[in-house]
Oligopeptide transport system permease protein OppC
Amino acid sequence: MTDAAALLPPPAPGRSLWQDARGRLVRNRAAVASLVVLALIALACLVGPLLTGHPYDKVYPDYVRLPAGLASHPRAEAVPAAVARIAARIRATAGDVSVENGIVRLALTAPRPIDPRLLVYFERSDQFGAARIVESGDDGRRLVVVVPVKSLRFLFGTDGNGRDLLTRTLMAGRVSLSIGLLATTVALLIGVTYGATAGYLGGRIDMVMMRAVDVLYALPFIFIAILLVVFLGRNIVLVFLAVGAVEWLDMARIVRGQTLSIKRRDYVLAAEALGVPTRGILTRHVIPNTLGPVIVQVTLLVPKVILLESFLSFLGLGVQEPMTSWGALISDGARAIEAAPWLLTVPAGFLVTTLFALNFLGDGLRDALDPTER
């Protein structure tokens, strides 16, 4: 008997719900691709502003509403006009303008001697560096100067204030994704705990807890946001508080509905019969089995939170200048869509891509976490 038992193959190791879910998620190509896209967007928003070469709040008055493109600025054909404008401020006339290897050579003439200190106007511009006098004549009324050209690139163009749109879009992504993730996390923690407790305890406790949810539903969201601004002032933390204080209500209702059906399952009844405390039943049996609908709701809640933040910023209650968010950039771009369509398409492209990726990832997580698929 012992020899026969020794010949039997060892029992196969068991697999947990999380192991099965991970395997099904990896086989879902759309979900994996969406996860990669989200990771790339998050990495670009985190590291990108350090690599663009433009501070997010730097204003370039000479490059207002510049279209997107790969060419460097200023372009060669624009240099003579730019030099003429600066010469006019010096009260001189620019002539013999030539550009070679990024260096502009020109002659400044004026009816009276030119003060060399006025050449600082070249350095103060966004297009040129510090000017250097190489020749002087006519008692200072004629100066030959050389000026280096500042080569700047704006891959996504500039906004109405002359700020680099790529840098601002990536910085806006930091704000929007942070608000979406943190506010959703707050709503997730409060809503899951509240809904699971109400659904499992049932009876009068459930009734009282859900009536409190109904009362909070009756309060307008914008009213709560304005109250927080009045009492606490304007800062980005208010966005987390205002959104997190409202968005957990939907999560609580979803989790309560799932809990009402789960608490009648045999494994929950068996745990109750064995004397497992209520906290243990909630954390080990009820909440893990509600994760499928919860994850799907989370993937829908993140873009909803981003849109709510955009609404608050549009009203002046959210992110304040010079900081920005995708919603604020889209609002600015919508007002200038005819004159500068890239101001709308660039941040909207980032937002739409993020929303699609979140939706595909949510569908994949829903299928992977469905216990009936084991």
